[in-house]
Structure formats: structure tokens, C-alpha cells
């Protein structure tokens, strides 16, 4: 397709993450360029953070605080105002340090006299619950750079607290005003927020949007909302674009739309956006661009919402999606790759990979090859439509991305990368001698043999995460996870022995889960750490979504859904009643405490009951259960 008259700008709204760009605009821009469309991109999440975290940004913050009477300031805000000259003097060098542009500053930062230290630094001295000791001890194991990055991250977190308390209570570095969009049945809260006078952050975003328009002079702006925490800003950006030039076509898409806005009937959304599209963006966009060129009627749009005579209309003229082999190579061209911030927030080794380092993001396949887990949105396209590419195609993409970005780290963003594809990919990476590092999410399949784990490590795999969910064979079967605890033990041991960091996604609160199940799950997890199978983990509280099997056939899981109010906007989470009546909140506290300590190698031999602050039964799992599982092959 040639489209000389169309100029497409793709934007990432605040906030997503600060260490690397969220990949949707890179995918769409790469795809559109491959089809001859003039396409460019900007990351306004990073731009907003850098605008705020600058000497001029802190001066604006201080001015706003000065307008508040002393007596009305919170303790944090007061502390910031007192120490303002030190913040103003340190912000620019600290940002440069976090961008990796001035590493020698680390020595001054770890000296603890350079950065002003607000309340967030108290965590360094605080004793963590039950035994881990002051967090500071962990720095014994960290180098100077990491230690300094952690301190600089605390400094930024202090500033984010001040912004929240003085300027905009909805602000966080990885989500912004999330509650206005997440599972919000009506548009009313968002509409009210959008009608309110702009906060300092809104004003910045407005200016950044106008700057981007001036730079790129687009005729079409694609705004991508992967998560609820990017939605408010997306609407603010669209508001600015429409006020600036109503003739610019605005389009909204991304993971949030694909998940939560499928039943949209709210016409006010179209005061901001001309079109919304669902699922993989490539095919709907081609159709839409043809429409904008007058070559296709609105009746032939693909998976698109628009407004007709004041009502929302959904059109899905069925055309096949673009095969994953043909979507082309994402491009990061136009994004300021040297300006992302490598933050070191938590000492959880896997979370560290999420927020630290500029990873190129790439999918090994579209969708999930398993698509059965009953807690997952298996009915949606991004899970249900499995479509793989050859190892040659993937390696071509990898080579092109390394050549373009100069960076060799890859995060494979699949829900669960397929073992067969990973094996072929590893062989091709080795054959071409591409010295990349990579990590991503997998399922703990039997097919990950120790030999395959070693081959993956040799091809550059440094870490994997996978779901152990509730470590209980009964519940793993009920949730159709397709793995057993013993199998997870053997597979994770294989990865660990190959030198690959293993992170387990853990879940609690699944339908019918009893206190005994939870205690037993923790006992398994304890043993997996003690036996060196896993090094990292995180407990998520189970929640039901409307597109998951639990949300669709709750009776199969022994639970009853709570009715939802009428929905005209977002629909996702849904409450449920579990007749088991287990107090998961109380148990969750114990699980998190235990895991935190296990990740530091602490108390691995002790009875798991010690972590709970409520009375719990003895584990029914034998203390050598995992050791025995590891002896079997
Ligand atoms: C990898 C991943 C992560 C990683 C990395 C996140 C990151 N910042 O890069 C980790 C594990 C850290 C993560 C965290 C979270 N995630 Co996540 N994550 C994913 C996953 C599996 C892939 C995302 C990805 O990179 N896809 C590749 C890109 C290219 O695909 P895409 O963004 O969907 O873009 C395509 C289309 O959507 C469309 N499109 C996109 N934008 C636009 C715009 C326009 C205008 C158009 C026309 C089309 C279009 O075209 C693109 C190409 O086809 C998705 C599920 C999935 N399979 O997509 C969930 C998903 C996006 N995550 C989700 C959530 C909720 C989160 C968290 C908020 C969870 C939490 N509570 O903490 C956090 C937020 C983290 C953050 N602030 O950055 C949800 C969002 C659903 C929702 N309710 O909005 C998803 C959909 C999974 C789910 N169903 O739960 N996540």
C-alpha cells in the first residue's frame, strides 16, 4: 500500500515503564513502514518523567508547594521544601547516572552525602519482618553501581511521593490514575477527571503532545494503552490533539482496549477518539488507513468501534489477520534509547530485570500454544490465536534490531514461549553466533529437559519465569495448568543447573483453596528454594476476569460470581463468592513474608507455620518431597 498523504504517529502515553519502551508503537511503526506508510513514534511516558525529574520540573513543583500554607503541607512535602536546593542541584546528575551516562557518580552516591535522603531511605535501616535483618545488608552482595542505583531509585521514589501529596495524587512511575480506567463500568469518573482543570502533570503532557505534533505533523495519531494505568493520559493526549486540530484522526488500541473495552457502548469516548480497534492492530489498521484514504467504506472496517449518529457502532468485516511471519520487524527508530532510566527498585531478582536495563522486546509467537489455564483470558485473541514464526525469521528480526539499537538484550514478551520454538531459536542463534542475552516467560513443561535448558543457556538465556501458581497438584489440575509440582521441581532444577535464574509466579486465593492447601503450597515453595530449584518468586492474589474460564463457567470451579453493574465502558474483574470461606488476606501476609526471606536464603529449614500470624495446620507434605522428586527422572 502506498499512502503518501497519510502521516501516522504512534504514541505511548504515561505511564508504562521507564527502563525501556513498551513495544506496541515499535511493532506498529515497523509494520506500517514495511507497508510503505509514513510512520513515526514517540514515548510520552519517558518524556513526562524526564520533564518532571529535571531542575525546571522541580522548580515548578516547589512553586506549587510554596502556594500551600505551611500548616497544610504533609511531612514529606515539608521535608522536600526544606531540602529543595539539594534536590535542585542533584536531579540532573542523578538522572544522567540512571541513564547510564555518568557511571562514576556511583561513588559519590554510595557515600550517602550526595543525595538528600527522604523517608524512603528509612527502608534501608528498617528491619524486615521476622528475620531478614536490615535491607542494607543485601548491599554487601551488590556492586557499587547497583548500590548507587538503588539509592538513586529511593531518591526518585521520595520525589514521586512529594508529587503525589502536593500535585497529583494519582501519579506513579509505572501507572497513572489507574483506578479511573480499571474495570470501570461507566465513563463518568474518567469524564469528570478529564473535565477538571489540568494538574502540573497534565499541563506537561499537553505541552509534550503539542511538541510531538509540531515535530511530526501527523494526519493520524495512534495511541496505545497496554494497561489501565495509561488510559487517563491517553484521553488527555487525545483531548489536546482534538483541541489543536480536530482534523487529525485519533485512534485508540492496545492491551487495555483488547481486554476491557470489548463491550463499549459509551459515545462520549468518541469525543476524544475517532476509532478504537480490538486485538492485533495490523489488519484493523490497514483497513482503517484505506478508509481514511477514501478507498474503503466504514462498513468494511475490521474490529473497529466508531460513533454513528451519536451511538457506538462496532464493525468487523472479517479479513484474515496478518500472519505473525509477515508482521515485519519492530523498529525503535525515533525513540531516545539512551535516555531510559535503569531503576533498581526491589531486590527481587526477576522484578529487577523488569525495571532495570534497556531490553528490546520481541514475541517468539503470537498467542499462547497452551491456552487452557482457567485463570487466564484464554478466550481473547492475544492468547487464543496461536501463530508462530520460523527460527530464521525470528533471528532475522533479532539481527535487524541489534543492528538498529546497538543493544543485545531481549525480553521475549510471550505469555508462554513454546519449547519447540525456543529450541529452534536457540539452535539458530548459536548457528549465527549472535551473542545476545534473553529472558521471558515459559510453562514448566517436561520438554524442557536438562539438555535443552543447557542449550538455551548457551544461546543467551539468562532468566525464565513460569507459573507454579498454587503449588498443589489438586489445584493445578483444577486450573488446567498441565503441570505437576514434581515436574516443576525437575524442570526448574534443570534451568537452575544451567545457570538460568528461575522466577516462579505463585498464586493464592484460587477457588476452593483451603488453609491446608496454602500451608502445603508454602511448604513446597520452601523446599524448591532449599533445593536450589528457584531463586525468585512473587505471590499474586487470584482474581477472576470475565474472559477467563473461571469467569465464564464459575460453577465448574465451585464459586458464584457477584453480579456486575450495567457496563457501558470497561469490563474485566469480577468478584466471586467461594463457599470455602478461607481468609486469604491473612494467609497472604504470611506467604509474602516467607518468600521475601527465602529469596535471601533465610529460614529455609524452618517450619513454614512460623510465617503466619493466624493459627494454621501442619503441612501434609513430606519434608523431603522435592528432594525425592528430583531423584526421579
Ligand atoms: C509482557 C507483559 C508484561 C510484562 C512487561 C510489561 C511491559 N511494560 O512491557 C510484565 C510482566 C512486567 C507486565 C506487567 C504488567 N502487566 Co502485562 N502483559 C504482558 C503481555 C503478556 C505482553 C505485552 C506485550 O509486550 N505484547 C506485545 C505488544 C506488541 O502487543 P500489544 O501491546 O498488545 O500491541 C498490539 C495490539 O494490542 C495492537 N495495538 C497496541 N496499541 C495499539 C494502538 C492502536 C491505535 C491500534 C490501532 C492498535 C494497537 O497492535 C499491537 C500489534 O499487534 C500482555 C498480554 C499480551 N499477550 O499481550 C500482558 C498485559 C498487557 N498486561 C496486563 C497487565 C494488567 C499488567 C500489569 C498492570 C499487571 C499488574 N497489576 O501489575 C503490569 C503493568 C506493568 C507496567 N506498568 O509496565 C494486561 C492488561 C489488561 C488490562 N486489564 O488492561 C495484559 C493484557 C494481560 C492480561 N490479560 O492480564 N506485563
From TrEMBL:
**Stretches assigned to the Radical SAM core domain:** 354-589
Native species of this protein? Pseudaquabacterium pictum
Q: Which cofactor does it need?
A: [4Fe-4S] cluster
* UniProtKB keywords: Iron, Iron-sulfur, Metal-binding, S-adenosyl-L-methionine
What this protein is called in its record is Radical SAM protein
GO CC annotation terms, alphabetical: cytosol
Q: Name one GO molecular function term.
A: metal ion binding
Protein origin, superkingdom:
Bacteria
Q: What Pfam families would the database entry show?
A: Radical_SAM (PF04055)
Keyword match Iron-sulfur: yes
Amino acid at each position: 500500500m502506498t499512502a503518501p498523504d497519510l502521516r501516522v504517529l504512534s504514541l505511548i502515553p504515561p505511564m508504562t515503564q521507564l527502563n525501556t519502551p513498551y513495544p506496541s508503537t515499535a511493532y506498529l511503526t515497523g509494520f506500517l513502514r514495511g507497508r510503505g506508510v509514513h510512520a513515526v513514534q514517540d514515548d510520552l511516558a519517558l518524556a513526562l518523567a524526564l520533564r518532571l525529574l529535571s531542575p525546571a520540573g522541580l522548580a515548578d513543583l516547589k512553586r506549587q508547594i510554596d502556594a500551600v500554607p505551611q500548616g497544610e503541607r504533609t511531612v514529606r512535602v515539608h521535608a522536600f521544601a526544606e531540602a529543595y536546593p539539594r534536590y535542585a542541584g542533584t536531579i540532573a546528575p542523578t538522572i544522567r547516572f540512571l541513564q547510564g551516562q555518568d557511571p562514576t557518580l556511583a561513588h559519590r552516591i554510595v557515600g550517602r552525602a550526595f543525595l538528600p535522603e527522604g523517608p524512603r531511605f528509612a527502608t534501608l535501616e528498617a528491619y524486615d519482618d521476622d528475620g531478614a535483618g536490615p535491607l542494607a545488608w543485601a548491599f554487601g552482595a551488590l556492586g557499587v553501581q547497583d548500590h548507587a542505583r538503588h539509592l538513586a531509585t529511593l531518591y526518585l521514589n521520595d520525589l514521586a511521593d512529594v508529587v503525589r501529596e502536593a500535585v497529583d495524587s494519582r501519579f506513579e512511575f509505572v501507572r497513572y490514575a489507574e483506578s479511573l480506567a480499571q474495570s470501570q463500568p461507566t465513563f463518568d469518573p474518567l469524564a469528570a477527571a478529564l473535565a477538571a482543570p489540568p494538574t502540573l502533570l497534565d499541563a506537561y503532557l499537553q505541552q509534550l503532545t503539542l511538541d510531538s505534533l509540531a515535530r511530526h505533523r501527523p494526519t493520524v495519531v495512534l495511541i496505545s494503552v497496554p494497561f489501565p494505568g495509561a488510559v487517563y493520559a491517553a484521553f488527555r493526549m487525545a483531548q489536546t490533539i482534538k483541541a489543536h486540530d480536530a482534523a487529525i484522526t485519533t485512534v485508540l488500541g492496545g492491551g487495555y482496549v483488547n481486554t476491557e473495552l470489548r463491550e463499549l457502548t459509551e459515545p462520549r469516548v468518541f469525543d476524544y477518539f475517532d476509532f478504537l480497534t480490538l486485538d492485533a492492530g495490523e489488519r484493523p489498521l490497514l483497513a482503517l488507513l484505506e478508509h481514511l484514504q477514501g478507498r474503503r467504506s466504514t462498513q468494511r472496517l475490521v474490529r473497529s468501534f466508531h460513533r454513528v449518529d451519536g451511538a457506538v457502532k462496532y464493525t468487523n468485516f472479517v479479513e484474515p489477520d496478518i500472519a505473525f511471519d509477515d508482521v515485519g520487524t519492530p523498529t525503535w527508530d525515533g525513540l531516545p534509547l539512551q535516555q531510559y532510566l535503569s531503576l533498581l527498585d526491589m531486590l527481587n531478582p526477576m522484578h529487577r530485570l523488569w525495571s532495570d536495563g534497556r531490553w528490546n522486546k520481541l514475541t517468539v509467537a503470537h498467542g499462547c500454544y497452551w491456552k487452557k489455564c482457567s485463570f487466564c483470558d484464554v478466550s481473547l485473541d492475544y492468547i487464543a490465536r496461536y501463530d508462530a514464526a520460523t527460527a530464521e525469521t525470528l533471528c532475522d528480526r533479532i539481527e535487524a534490531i541489534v543492528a538498529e539499537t546497538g543493544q543485545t538484550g531481549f525480553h521475549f514478551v510471550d505469555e508462554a514461549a513454546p519449547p519447540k520454538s525456543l529450541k529452534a531459536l536457540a539452535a539458530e542463534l548459536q548457528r549465527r553466533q549472535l551473542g545476545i542475552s534473553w529472558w521471558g516467560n515459559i510453562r514448566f513443561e517436561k520438554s524442557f529437559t536438562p539438555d535443552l535448558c543447557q542449550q538455551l543457556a548457551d544461546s543467551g538465556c539468562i532468566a525464565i519465569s513460569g507459573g507454579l501458581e498454587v503449588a498443589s497438584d489438586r489445584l493445578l489440575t483444577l486450573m488446567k495448568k498441565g503441570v505437576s509440582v514434581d515436574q516443576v521441581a525437575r524442570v526448574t532444577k534443570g534451568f537452575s543447573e544451567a545457570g538460568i535464574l528461575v522466577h516462579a509466579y505463585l498464586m493464592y486465593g484460587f477457588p476452593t483453596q483451603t488453609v491446608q492447601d496454602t500451608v502445603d503450597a508454602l511448604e513446597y515453595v520452601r523446599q524448591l528454594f532449599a533445593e536450589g530449584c528457584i531463586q525468585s518468586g512473587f505471590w499474586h492474589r487470584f482474581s477472576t476476569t470475565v474472559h477467563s474460564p473461571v469467569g465464564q463457567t464459575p460453577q465448574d470451579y465451585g464459586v458464584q460470581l457477584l453480579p456486575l453493574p450495567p457496563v457501558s465502558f470497561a469490563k474485566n474483574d469480577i468478584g466471586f463468592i467461594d463457599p470455602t470461606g478461607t481468609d486469604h488476606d491473612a494467609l497472604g501476609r504470611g506467604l509474602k513474608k516467607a518468600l521475601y526471606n527465602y529469596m535471601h536464603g533465610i529460614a529455609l529449614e524452618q517450619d513454614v507455620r512460623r510465617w503466619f500470624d493466624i493459627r494454621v495446620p501442619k503441612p501434609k507434605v513430606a519434608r523431603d518431597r522435592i528432594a525425592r522428586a528430583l531423584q526421579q527422572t
